[in-house]
Amino acid sequence: MTDAATTHAETSSRSHWVPDLPLVVWMVVLTLILGLGSGMASADLVAAYNVGFGRALGEFALILLPSFTLAAALSRQNVASEAAGRATAFASPVAGAGMICPDTAYAALSPAAGRYKLELAFGAYAGFKLLYPAGPLIVAAGLGAAVTEAVPPITLLLAGVMLTVPVWMAGVIWARFAYKPAESGFVAATEQKKAGLFLTFAPFSVMAALLLVGGVVGQTGNGIIDFLLMPKGALLCAAILALLQTPVTARRECLDSAVRRTGSLLLVIGAASAFGGVLTMLVPLDRLVPNGSGLVTLLALFALTVIFKLAQGSSMATFAAVAPVAAPIVVASGAEPVAAVFAICLGSFIAILPNDSYYWLVRRDALEHETSEARAIRILTGGAVLQACVGLALLLAVVALWA
């Protein structure tokens, strides 16, 4: 109670100095202040805002709408089974990436996770951040054509897998030592539901197969086939399959949920893109970042993302907001595109705090027996920071050796 009261008092105190506004409002206000404060004509500012706002919305709509449809459909499946405790922890990175949301992946699989819930939480978090088609695809799309055209999807997929394994294991090790769950937290499952987990991950298997075939075959010249073998087409196929597994009466609800989530996020993405566009016009970023600065640029991108994540809390909104701002830095510095994408992804690990919905989801489930709010914060934030540091060290080492 003391922690909660203190937090409330601190929040109330801060609110006297800083208005409590949604991220999208902050982005719009800052863009207008930046443009008008620099002396831009109002017509030029509005024109720049229009161009920036719509720059990547179509790209994101094709990614987010099927992604959230997939998430909504899978969240309605019961995957409890005798062997699901360890299986969910093992499959959690794939679930986090496939559902394009660690919250949804955790909520869908936690009923079957038992005493492995914390391992599931860090696994879903790592998969969402580092595995294609989640974090890497979203960040690459936000960085723009200069990155997406230079980086084949199979490269992002393989690089993400290589980074995910050690980062995921760091989270698992932290979970084992940082918190001992109560034995009563393990929920036994029924025998007749063993197939549920395999059916749940069938859309992921289809998506992975299509992406692998696309990476091997390349362009076929047939528009329909080429679309199905590209990330957006494979994601759409996975969403359709998950929707077909959902009861007919719940399908419209899944689609409505996907539309609501996509619409609100597209607004954030548009505002962030407009801010990045106006910022690029006014600030000579090519002079601030030395050409070919390599490791320095990667560290700068990591730090920039950390700032956005600590301020915003939401991982998805962080990706949406930071990518347009980081895009001119990546282009001006000449940084390796794949490394730049994953530097941003790794920066978004820091941290799982109370301003993140994922914190409360895991806190009230995996850590429900933990009475100290401060210790709960240390457990979740400590694991996320460890994962970020392990991933960043590995990324910088590979870039340094490759160079």
Automatic annotation (TrEMBL):
InterPro entries: Glcn_transporter
Record Pfam families: GntP_permease (PF02447)
Keyword list, A-Z: Membrane, Plasmid, Transmembrane, Transmembrane helix
Segments passing through the bilayer: 23-49, 56-75, 130-148, 154-175, 196-218, 224-244, 265-285, 291-310, 317-335, 341-362, 383-402
UniProt keyword Lipid metabolism, yes or no: no
Name of the protein described by the UniProt record: Uncharacterized protein
